[in-house]
Design a protein that fits this description.
The protein has about 400 residues and is of the alpha/beta class. Among the domains are: about 70 residues, no CATH class; about 200 residues, Aldehyde Dehydrogenase, Chain A, domain 2 (3-Layer(aba) Sandwich), CATH 3.40.309.10. About 35% of the residues lie in helices and about 10% in strands. The protein contains 13 helices and 9 strands. Helix 4 crosses helix 5. It is globular, with a radius of gyration of 24 Å. The two termini are about 50 Å apart.
């Protein structure tokens, strides 16, 4: 467990341990090391008795896990932007963001780290944020908070993690109203030395104002490239075209629509797999893009019977030409924009106004025909078909 959370971690481990053993799990199947040092953690990760490491933590710890040589599945750092587009239900969007950022005082890595607002709705968003408990720091206060958030070595100060907005303002040396729930600093730049454009596991947010959703797209990519590639972003909008563009182009594995990011990212308010280890995939330096659940921890043996011979594979006309399969909408309330298992678009009142066509959904490319040799030209043809479909 992290040293700053040792007591509550050990308490949680004890509760889970008792429940597991009462349900028939082997004694000692749930436990924790008592020496909370880097050396002890390294020895554990290198142990021959460890079959798999599930690494959830900072970038340094995740790298150490992969470097141990033990098979590893990892989570990664978040830095999720929340984009409020002009068609959004602004009071609801603000409520979602503040609810998310104050849940466990912002320690969930999927929580919002910055807000991006279109200029045409900025005044309304600003008023709503203040009405719901946000405090906008002035330039001097923002500088004091930045000095508290970021240590001289460029890492986020662990002393701010999970603290309330009131406590953080006192630590930084300025006063805020007793009703303050989150602290916000207006920003125009993104860099590794700017803590407002990085992951902050506490109720502090940066805020960026952009001219339109296209400019917001660029800002989102800039923020994620700075930190949080492969993790999460959230959009508040009623515009299905904007949703589609964000889903197609942004370098994250979780795109959340009109929901609190902290709760949606872990599956509480969405149909994404419930989990607290959120993989960032190859783009984020990890081995999995999943919300890591029980199935990720299983090795499943497959048994395959022969059903055709190699001669049948080569014989012209021996089997029908595979056809593209169009992904159909999934019915049911409260579905995520792409279903976690099937990547189905939800059938909702919002999407009913935009009838789907073959060009509007992901479709598989036509497979190489059975009467053709599988060669370089045919592979190129299939790849070209895939790219043409994605281009549409």
């Amino acid at each position: 467990p992290p040293p700053g959370a040792r007591q509550c971690s050990w308490k949680a481990i004890e509760i889970v341990k008792r429940a597991a053993e009462a349900a028939g799990a082997p004694a000692g199947s749930v436990d924790a090391i008592s020496q909370l040092t880097l050396e002890a953690t390294s020895e554990l990760m290198h142990s021959k008795d460890v079959s798999l490491i599930l690494a959830t933590g900072g970038e340094g710890m995740v790298r150490a896990a992969y470097a141990s040589g033990t098979p590893t599945i990892s989570g990664g750092p978040g830095n999720g932007p929340a984009f409020i587009e002009r068609s959004a239900d602004i009071p609801h969007a603000v409520k979602d963001i503040i609810t998310s950022k104050t849940f466990d005082n912002g320690v969930i890595c999927a929580s919002e780290q910055s807000i991006i607002v279109e200029r045409c709705i900025y005044d309304e968003v600003h008023r709503e944020l203040e009405a719901q408990g946000a405090y906008f720091m002035n330039e001097s206060e923002a500088a004091k908070m930045a000095a508290l958030l970021l240590r001289p070595n460029g890492t986020i100060n662990p002393k701010v993690v999970g603290k309330t907005a009131l406590y953080l303002s006192q630590m930084a040396g300025f006063c805020v109203p007793a009703s303050t729930r989150v602290l916000i600093a207006a920003q125009t730049t993104v860099s590794h030395s700017n803590p407002y454009s990085r992951e902050k596991l506490c109720p502090v947010l940066g805020l960026y104002v952009e001219e339109d959703w296209k400019a917001a797209c660029h800002r989102v990519v800039e923020l994620l490239t700075n930190e949080g590639l492969g993790h999460t972003l959230v959009i508040h909008t009623r515009n299905q075209d904007v949703i589609r563009q964000f889903c197609l182009e942004k370098p994250v594995n979780r795109i959340l629509i009109n929901t609190p990011a902290a709760l949606g990212g872990i599956g509480a308010t969405t149909n994404i797999t419930p989990a607290l280890t959120l993989g960032c995939g190859a783009v984020g330096g990890g081995s999995s893009s999943d919300n890591v659940g029980p199935m990720n921890l299983l090795n499943i043996r497959k048994v395959g019977y022969g059903v055709r011979s190699i001669d049948e594979l080569r014989a012209p006309g021996s089997r029908p030409e595979p056809q593209p399969t169009i992904v159909s909408p999934a019915a049911g309330p409260n579905r995520s924009i792409f279903d976690d298992e099937r990547f189905n678009a939800p059938a909702t009142a919002a999407t009913a106004a935009h009838p789907a066509s073959a060009d509007d959904r992901f479709a598989s490319a036509a497979a190489v025909g059975a009467d053709s040799e599988i060669n370089e030209q045919n592979v190129e043809r299939v790849i070209r078909q895939v790219l043409e479909r994605l281009g549409k």
